[in-house]
Amino acid sequence: MTDRSPAVSLWRNRNYRVFLLIQTLSALGDSFSFVAIPLLVLHSTGSVVQMGLVTGMTGVASIVTGLFAGVIADRFDRRRLLMLADVARCLLYALIPLVWLFTTPMWLIYTVVPLTGGFAMLFQVTYVTVVPAIVEPDQITRANAHLFGSYAVATVGGPTLAGFVAAASGPVAAIGIDAVTFAVSAAGLLFVKLRPAPPPDGAERAGVRGEFLAGVRFLWAHPVLRPLTVLLSLFVFLTHGMTDVIIFRVKKDLGHGDDTVGYVLSAGTVGTLLASFVVTRVRKGLGFGRSWVGATALGGVAVACLGLTDSVPTIGALSAGMLLATGVAGICSMSLRQEVTPSHLLGRVTAAFWTTHYSLGPLGAAAVTAAAAGFGVARVCLAVGAGVVCVALSGTLTGIVRAEASA
């Protein structure tokens, strides 16, 4: 099948078009809380360490949820699970503006943010299992590129709008907008139909622990997924707190306002959009291994260069380069996992994959933000960038570089 045929049939797929539209809207709302939550913490506490702590708590909640999210995604109706996750996040985020009308309790942030992180993990694991149930196997990379691109389009404007809303009405108002988008996304999922997944083998029903370990065993036995998981664990440790570091750099080190933060993060997400345009050709031309290693290394170089400039436009451009590179690597990684994993195992394999490589995220976010407060953002960016390049080059010593373009 040629490149052109899958693209044409993909756009004729009504379920895929509706799903793409819904996820674009949801991503627009996500970009509001992506900016508004750190800003609300910073406004309330003035501390980059507190920002890192909140980010870290979200990571912990994701890890805990990941232990059983894959089991749930493989056992239950996946569309209903997506709707449940959307409705739960809508209600939780709506609590913040409602309570903030009367008081400003930081405990609410420390309660709501981890809970929404748990439902986000359930959504993300289920989301990965849904894409192969909407499109054909040879369309997965292209579909992921479109979905990634729609996310980028939404988040190019989202952080800027969030910055304006936060500057005009406070970050709490931006969080309220996010709650509304989750409600609309949940309603839209009613119009998406999925191909039924093959029933799981009854022998696999061995409790949550046993079923989770089935995903771990598949992951660990695969010659590409195994080293990829290890390297991504190190990558997440190094980069999980970088958004907080960039926000701290722009606001505290350089003295700019919330709207400038929005501009910088919007500029960064342009790289995500570019990744969606180039990833299909890059993977086809270079294969999975060389695409992943090269893109991750370039991302590390961009992070390192963030520590060498005081120019806000340059910071925005480097953020775009970083997200372009990591976007290509991320789309390739997710597509490979969807292609090589049986449908009835995909939820558990995805949960095992994410739980494993996100396990170091909370510790990394706390360490990187604490280091930024103690040693300065410039030194931290140089160290993190060098570490990411080392992670990428380590991939050349594993089976990753021998992976085929289409697995």
Count the DSSP helices: 15
Please tell me the overall pLDDT.
Answer: 80
Kindly state the percentage of residues in helix: over 70%
Query: What is the CATH superfamily classification?
Result: MFS general substrate transporter like domains
Output the radius of gyration.
20 Å
CATH architecture: Up-down Bundle
Count up the domains. 1
Describe the 3D structure.
The protein is an all-alpha fold and 407 residues long. The chain has a single domain, classed as Growth Hormone, Chain: A (Up-down Bundle). The chain contains 15 helices and no strands. Helix 4 packs antiparallel against helix 5, helix 5 runs antiparallel to helix 13 and helix 11 crosses helix 12. The radius of gyration is 20 Å and the shape is globular. The two termini are 16 Å apart. The N terminus is likely disordered.
Quick recap of the structure?
This protein has helices at 4-11, 14-45, 48-75, 78-100, 106-130, 140-169, 171-188, 207-221, 225-239, 242-253, 258-306, 312-340, 343-358, 361-375, 377-394. With 407 residues, it is mostly helical.
Question: Can you lay out the helices and strands and say which pair or pack?
Answer:
Blueprint (H helix, E strand, L loop, with lengths): L3 H8 L2 H32 L2 H28 L2 H23 L5 H25 L9 H30 L1 H18 L18 H15 L3 H15 L2 H12 L4 H49 L5 H29 L2 H16 L2 H15 L1 H18 L13
Helix pairs in contact: 2-3, 2-6, 2-7, 3-5, 3-8, 3-13, 3-14, 4-5, 4-7, 5-13, 6-7, 6-11, 6-12, 8-13, 9-13, 9-14, 9-15, 10-11, 11-12, 11-15, 14-15
